[in-house]
């Protein structure tokens, strides 16, 4: 029982110091607030960044000699998207170079003539639009602008498809008109061919009956039979030809054909777990990252109780001081949870959200506490190194599959990987099995690390104390 008594005595002394010294209380309140401020500011800043893409300035230069370039510009004005600036080439290029514009779209002089070349049916040229991106201004904006320009390409292709469809529909309509105007001629020719075919066939029967071919040269008979065969073939073709279908082309609706050609396929999008905002998507990453940072800051600011007195075991010091960090961790998590509620973060349930954030905070605190309490300043460095590797490896923003192979292998052994996955189930869409698995792995990691730290603290306490004394004695640490 002395072991537990020493633990609670250490915890009681820590609370006494906090109560008696207002400065300590103020500092602790700052430590509690730091991770919440970091998480909330970043989540709030990322709530709806794509709703403001109309603030990105993109220059448009129309050099087209025809009307199609003006139609493209009118379409850009009507559809919005970016903050379009319609300028001449020199102004646009200078603004792009100076960073005033995030991109430059140039419609060349031959744009209309190349599109209209389809009307002639020969020597058809592909139209071109030039896009110049400024990759220096910002790492994300070029990709956003590039994506928007890809959408512009689709709209222009739709417009051009409409032009082509109008041309094709017009040609079909003209063919239908010709067919209608020549319908009587078609019937007359059809009737006469059938009459001729019947006369020839009857003549052939008579010739065969009287064996006329035996009195004629073989080449004449063969040529006669060949031509009779062609006549029969042509007669069958004209009798089976759907001339009414040809005349129906007169009813082709160019508008419907143009609409279909502009968008022959419509993509229907569905979402298994709808996300209201981009902030909801990145919230699991920033929450877990902030909790880890909060743990590191607390353990960097608050000293370990290395020399607490005679008769007090290293185990008692290890567990007794951890009780204070449990209180700090719970406070950090609760303040962060309230802040997330304030900025409108969506989640599956308040109790589930607060329970998860508190439990994840305690797990991360247990891991960082084990490192720092066991290895002192070296443990602080290790916790920061772990943080550095976890940012790309935990899959918080980019999938680990997009990272170099090393980070993908490392991902399975890092606590933030499982903390972020558990939070995704709470914030984005709940799946009980995935939630329990990731939380179980995180708890197992934390408990294992805490026990290892307890063992190291108890067995190697004298060596660690000596190492710490040498660092302090250097005057640098």
Give an overview in words.
The chain is mostly helical and 477 residues long. It has 3 domains: 2-47 and 280-473, no CATH class; 51-165, 3-Layer(aba) Sandwich (abc type-2 transporter like fold); 182-241. 70% of the residues lie in helices and 4% in strands. The protein is built from 18 helices and 4 strands. Strands 2-1-3-4 form a 4-stranded mixed sheet, with helices on both faces. Strand 1 (57-62), helix 3 and strand 2 (83-86) form a beta-alpha-beta unit. The longest helix is centred in the middle third of the chain and has 41 residues, at 141-181. The protein is elongated. It starts with a helix and ends with a helix.
Key features of this structure:
single chain, 477 residues, mainly alpha, abc type-2 transporter like fold, 3 domains, four-stranded mixed β-sheet, 4 strands, elongated
> Tell me about the biggest sheet?
4 strands, mixed
With strands numbered from the N-terminus, the spatial order across the biggest sheet is 2-1-3-4
What is the strand tally? 4
The shape, in one word, is elongated
- Secondary structure class reads mainly alpha
Number of structural units classed as domains: 3
Mean pLDDT: 78
Query: What distance lies between the first and last C-alpha atoms, to the nearest angstrom?
Result: 36 Å
Binned strand content: under 5%
With helices defined by DSSP (H or I, 4 residues minimum), what is the helix count? 18
Low-confidence stretches: none
List SSEs in N-to-C order: HHEHEHEHEHHHHHHHHHHHHH
Return Rg in Å.
40 Å
Helical content class? 55-70%
């Amino acid at each position: 029982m002395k072991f537990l008594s020493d633990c609670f005595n250490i915890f009681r002394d820590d609370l006494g110091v906090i109560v008696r010294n207002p400065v300590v209380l103020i500092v602790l309140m700052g430590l509690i607030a730091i991770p919440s401020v970091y998480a909330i500011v970043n989540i709030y800043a990322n709530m709806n960044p794509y709703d403001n893409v109309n603030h990105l300035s993109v220059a448009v230069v129309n050099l087209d000699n025809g009307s199609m370039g003006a139609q493209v510009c009118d379409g850009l004005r009507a559809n919005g998207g970016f903050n379009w600036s319609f300028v001449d080439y020199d102004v646009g290029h200078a603004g792009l170079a100076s960073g005033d514009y995030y991109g430059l779209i140039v419609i060349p002089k031959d744009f209309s003539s190349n599109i209209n070349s389809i009307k002639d049916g020969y020597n058809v040229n592909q139209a071109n639009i030039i896009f110049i991106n400024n990759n220096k201004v910002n790492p994300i904006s070029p990709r956003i602008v590039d994506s928007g320009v890809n959408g512009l390409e689709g709209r222009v292709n739709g417009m051009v498809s409409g032009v082509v469809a109008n041309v094709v529909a017009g040609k079909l309509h003209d063919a239908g008109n010709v067919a209608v105007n020549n319908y009587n001629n078609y019937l007359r020719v059809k009737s006469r061919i059938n009459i001729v075919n019947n006369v020839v066939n009857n003549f052939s029967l008579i010739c065969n009956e009287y064996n006329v071919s035996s009195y004629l040269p073989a080449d004449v008979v063969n040529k006669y039979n060949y031509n009779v065969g062609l006549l029969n073939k042509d007669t069958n073709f004209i009798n089976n030809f759907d001339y009414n279908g040809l005349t129906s082309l007169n009813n082709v609706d160019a508008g419907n054909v143009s609409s279909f050609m502009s968008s022959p396929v419509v993509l229907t999008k569905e979402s298994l777990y709808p996300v209201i905002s981009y902030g909801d998507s990145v919230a699991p990453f920033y929450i877990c990252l902030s909790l880890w940072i909060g743990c590191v800051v607390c353990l960097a600011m608050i000293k370990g109780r290395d020399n607490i007195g005679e008769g007090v075991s290293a185990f008692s010091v290890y567990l007794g001081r951890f009780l204070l960090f449990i209180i700090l961790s719970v406070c950090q998590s609760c303040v962060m949870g309230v802040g997330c509620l304030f900025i409108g973060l969506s989640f599956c349930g308040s109790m589930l959200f607060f329970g998860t954030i508190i439990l994840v905070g305690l797990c991360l605190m247990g891991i960082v506490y084990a490192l720092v309490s066991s290895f002192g300043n070296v443990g602080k460095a290790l916790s920061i190194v772990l943080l550095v590797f976890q940012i790309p490896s935990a899959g918080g923003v980019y999938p680990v599959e997009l990272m170099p192979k090393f980070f993908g292998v490392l991902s399975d052994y890092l606590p933030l990987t499982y903390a972020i996955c558990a939070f995704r189930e709470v914030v984005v869409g709940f799946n009980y099995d995935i939630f329990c698995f990731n939380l179980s792995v995180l708890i197992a990691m934390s408990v294992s690390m805490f026990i290892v730290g307890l063992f190291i603290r108890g067995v190697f306490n004298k060596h660690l104390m000596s190492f710490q004394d040498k660092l302090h004695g250097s005057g640098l640490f």
